[in-house]
Amino acid sequence: MALLILTKEKVKPENIIESIIRLSSDNGFTININKKDELSLSKYQDIYLSKDYKKDNQECEDYFYLGLETNQMELEENGQKYYRLGVTDQAEYDHLMYDFSLAYLKFNPNHVISLYGESFFTLEDLEKIEAEGGYYKDWCYGVYRDDKD
């Protein structure tokens, strides 16, 4: 699964890191920032995020690496211009992606989360999912509960 963090205006990488540190503390994520990279010298600042979940009555740790971009790439989707703030293409855990996306957008309500570059979610979209019971398996494909068989 590929997750992108997008915004309509450039943001200081330090501000993104600060919000991710805060949301991690508030939402039970473990965070590890690769401190040997100088943010101003590297293209990406790698952040490791994980969270424990119970699956089949066993504790499991879901995780992903998020590359925060210091040189924010400009993208266009349906005539709308965005800047890509962060990207991961190795995230295999849709529940973790949901929890992170919701928490991130609560801290940054003007940003957008995109999955696969095809599904775009705002805070309003994820709050709608939350109001209908929260995380479910196909959320990341833009399939709402009432669209399913």
Q: Could you give the distance between the termini? A: 23 Å
Number of helices: 3
Describe the biggest sheet?
A: 7 strands, antiparallel
How would you describe the shape?
A: globular
Radius of gyration: 15 Å
Number of strands: 7
What's the overall average pLDDT, rounded? 86
Strand line-up across the major sheet: 2-3-4-5-1-6-7
**Oligomeric status:** single chain
N to C succession of SSEs: EHEEEEHEEH
β-strand percent reads: 35-45%
The unreliable regions are: none
| Category by helix and strand content | alpha+beta
Helix content: 25-40%
Please, could you describe this protein's structure?
- It is globular and about 45 Å long.
- The protein is α+β, with helices and mostly antiparallel strands and 149 residues long.
- The model has no long low-confidence stretch (mean pLDDT 86).
- Helix 1 crosses helix 2.
- The longest helix has 15 residues.
- The protein has a 7-stranded antiparallel sheet.
Summarize the structure.
The chain contains 3 helices and 7 strands; from the N terminus they run βαββββαββα.
